[in-house]
């Protein structure tokens, strides 16, 4: 069975007819030519296909495209500004060498944006001592929250530093805006 | 993968009617388990009825202090809900111990309870498996058995239920609200999942076409002082070897007024340790008294050389969980 769906991908409205068995990942990559989300394991174990779906980090390999008709998809490629300026998370990955071969990087970057948003909203994690307290931006917290994204090169040390830096920058910016 | 007809459900009743009337139809929720099974060939429905957009996505406080959780509430939203964090920490902790941040954003409350075993043979269609293909045999008996059950298994199936949330819900006496062709019914968590017996293809007591619409959490002192601990091969993003959901209410002298213990990773369903609970009521809670109570429950355990480790592991984890709760730990 075929179905016509419309997705907004990195700000562009795209309409495409897909077989109902098509995953969102295959629709993006094979039908729309959006190759930022990567196919790693294709079973929800590696995180390389992560995008922001309606603003939240989401695997595209474990989602049928037809079920997400109308969704807004932001890939790592859509995070930069209209002038090409890098998103703070992207910039931090560059500065801390959070990439090696680069294959997992778009998923890592999208997941990191989601992680920082979840921390900002006060969501606890498995390693948070107190479910009701504001979570900190510690190594332990970032490692736990990023555990759904694997890096076979083992660039974790750089990824950890990058996520923390981007989180600290966002926190400082929020603090300055609050004070102004 | 077979040709697939996709319906987006208009309302719960018509979704139930569609699936009830078609043995090859399935409900689609967050899809995190079902979409994987479609790819693996573990299941081959010809029709999917997508219930993920039905308005069953609210967490509502009930007049008696309980909570009604819509079946479409995402795992991450339920874990983050202020009332859950305050009144049912075991539920929030169980959710946060499961899957990854991405999957928790996708997976629903109802779907989490209906996820299927991660037994390697169930997921490998080239091997016999009574749960996947009734009557073909069980490859896990005498095969790779480290994750196998130690309580309530049968000759037909020795697998364990994979959900963390379900273990937390079993501990707090949750009720599952189910809509079927004949109307709504309410199923206590203890009766929702089943032991394998000679019908391991049936994970739950639901009939084909019955839809989980909500889960209700009753308020209690044991739920307020509760937590979840999980032993696993990695620090994060791995299924349980064993897990413990527990809550306790102590009187002024420090004796156990009430206690709840449920175990994951040991059986085909969340294992409510009723024998251990009874042994602890009225007693002082100590590492020793909890170990003794857990051992009474585990007298029924059947192990082999691959699963023998689970008995001391779940006993010790129960002691650690309850004694730290009694000492006021929040985690």
TrEMBL record, chain A:
<feature type="domain" description="2Fe-2S ferredoxin-type">
    <location>
        <begin position="3"/>
        <end position="79"/>
    </location>
</feature>
<keyword id="KW-0479">Metal-binding</keyword>
<protein>
    <submittedName>
        <fullName>2Fe-2S iron-sulfur cluster-binding protein</fullName>
    </submittedName>
</protein>
<keyword id="KW-0560">Oxidoreductase</keyword>
<dbReference type="InterPro" id="IPR006058">
    <property type="entry name" value="2Fe2S_fd_BS"/>
</dbReference>
<dbReference type="Pfam" id="PF01799">
    <property type="entry name" value="Fer2_2"/>
</dbReference>
<dbReference type="InterPro" id="IPR012675">
    <property type="entry name" value="Beta-grasp_dom_sf"/>
</dbReference>
<keyword id="KW-0408">Iron</keyword>
<dbReference type="InterPro" id="IPR001041">
    <property type="entry name" value="2Fe-2S_ferredoxin-type"/>
</dbReference>
<dbReference type="InterPro" id="IPR036010">
    <property type="entry name" value="2Fe-2S_ferredoxin-like_sf"/>
</dbReference>
<dbReference type="InterPro" id="IPR052914">
    <property type="entry name" value="Aldehyde_Oxdr_Iron-Sulfur"/>
</dbReference>
<dbReference type="InterPro" id="IPR002888">
    <property type="entry name" value="2Fe-2S-bd"/>
</dbReference>
<dbReference type="InterPro" id="IPR036884">
    <property type="entry name" value="2Fe-2S-bd_dom_sf"/>
</dbReference>
<dbReference type="Pfam" id="PF00111">
    <property type="entry name" value="Fer2"/>
</dbReference>
From TrEMBL, chain B:
<dbReference type="InterPro" id="IPR016169">
    <property type="entry name" value="FAD-bd_PCMH_sub2"/>
</dbReference>
<dbReference type="InterPro" id="IPR036683">
    <property type="entry name" value="CO_DH_flav_C_dom_sf"/>
</dbReference>
<dbReference type="Pfam" id="PF03450">
    <property type="entry name" value="CO_deh_flav_C"/>
</dbReference>
<dbReference type="InterPro" id="IPR016166">
    <property type="entry name" value="FAD-bd_PCMH"/>
</dbReference>
<keyword id="KW-0560">Oxidoreductase</keyword>
<dbReference type="InterPro" id="IPR051312">
    <property type="entry name" value="Diverse_Substr_Oxidored"/>
</dbReference>
<dbReference type="InterPro" id="IPR005107">
    <property type="entry name" value="CO_DH_flav_C"/>
</dbReference>
<dbReference type="InterPro" id="IPR036318">
    <property type="entry name" value="FAD-bd_PCMH-like_sf"/>
</dbReference>
<dbReference type="Pfam" id="PF00941">
    <property type="entry name" value="FAD_binding_5"/>
</dbReference>
<dbReference type="InterPro" id="IPR016167">
    <property type="entry name" value="FAD-bd_PCMH_sub1"/>
</dbReference>
<dbReference type="InterPro" id="IPR002346">
    <property type="entry name" value="Mopterin_DH_FAD-bd"/>
</dbReference>
<protein>
    <submittedName>
        <fullName>Xanthine dehydrogenase family protein subunit M</fullName>
    </submittedName>
</protein>
<feature type="domain" description="FAD-binding PCMH-type">
    <location>
        <begin position="1"/>
        <end position="222"/>
    </location>
</feature>
């Amino acid at each position: 069975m075929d179905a016509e769906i419309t997705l907004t991908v990195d700000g562009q409205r795209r309409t495409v007819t897909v077989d109902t068995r098509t995953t969102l990942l295959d629709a993006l990559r094979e039908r729309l030519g959006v190759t930022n989300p990567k196919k790693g394991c294709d079973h929800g174990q590696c995180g390389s296909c992560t995008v922001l779906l309606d603003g939240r980090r989401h695997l595209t390999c474990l989602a049928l495209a037809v079920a997400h008709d109308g969704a807004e998809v932001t890939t790592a490629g859509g995070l930069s500004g209209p002038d090409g300026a890098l998103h703070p998370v992207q910039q931090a990955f560059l500065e801390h060498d959070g990439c090696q071969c680069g294959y997992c990087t778009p998923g890592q970057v999208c997941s990191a944006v989601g992680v920082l948003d979840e921390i900002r909203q006060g969501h606890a994690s498995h390693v948070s001592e107190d479910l009701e307290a504001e979570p900190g931006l510690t190594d332990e917290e970032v490692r736990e929250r990023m555990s759904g994204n694997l890096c076979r090169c083992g660039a974790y040390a750089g990824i950890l530093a990058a996520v923390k830096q981007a989180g600290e920058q966002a926190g400082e910016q929020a603090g300055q805006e609050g004070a102004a | 993968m077979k040709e697939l007809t996709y319906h987006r459900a208009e309302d719960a009743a018509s979704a139930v009617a569609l699936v009830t009337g078609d043995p090859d139809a399935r409900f689609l929720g967050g899809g995190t388990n079902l979409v994987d099974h479609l790819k693996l060939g573990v299941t081959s429905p010809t029709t999917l009825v997508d219930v993920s957009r039905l308005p069953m996505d609210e967490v509502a406080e009930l007049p008696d202090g309980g909570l009604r959780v819509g079946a479409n509430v995402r795992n991450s939203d339920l874990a983050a809900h202020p009332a859950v964090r305050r009144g049912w920490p075991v539920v929030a902790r169980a959710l946060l111990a499961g899957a990854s941040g991405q999957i928790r954003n996708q997976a629903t409350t109802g779907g989490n309870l209906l996820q299927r075993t991660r037994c390697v043979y169930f997921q490998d269609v080239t091997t016999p498996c009574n749960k996947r293909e009734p009557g073909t045999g069980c490859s896990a008996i005498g095969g790779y058995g480290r994750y196998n059950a130690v309580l309530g298994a049968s000759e037909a199936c020795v697998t364990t239920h994979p959900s963390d949330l379900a273990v937390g819900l079993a501990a707090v006496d949750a009720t599952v609200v189910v809509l079927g062709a004949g109307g709504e019914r309410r199923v206590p968590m203890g009766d929702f999942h089943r032991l394998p017996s000679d019908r391991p293809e049936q994970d739950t007591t639901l009939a084909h076409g019955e839809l989980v619409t909500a889960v209700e959490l009753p308020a209690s002192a044991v739920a307020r002082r509760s937590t979840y601990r999980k032993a696993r091969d990695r620090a994060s993003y791995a299924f349980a070897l064993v897990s413990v959901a527990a809550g306790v209410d102590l009187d002024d002298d420090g004796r156990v007024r009430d206690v709840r213990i449920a175990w994951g990773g040991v059986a085909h369903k969340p294992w409510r340790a009723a024998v251990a609970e009874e042994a602890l009521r009225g007693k002082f809670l100590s590492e020793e008294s909890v170990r003794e109570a857990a051992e009474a429950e585990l007298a029924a355990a059947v192990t082999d050389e691959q699963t023998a480790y689970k008995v001391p592991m779940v006993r010790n984890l129960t002691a650690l969980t309850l004694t730290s709760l009694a000492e006021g730990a929040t985690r």
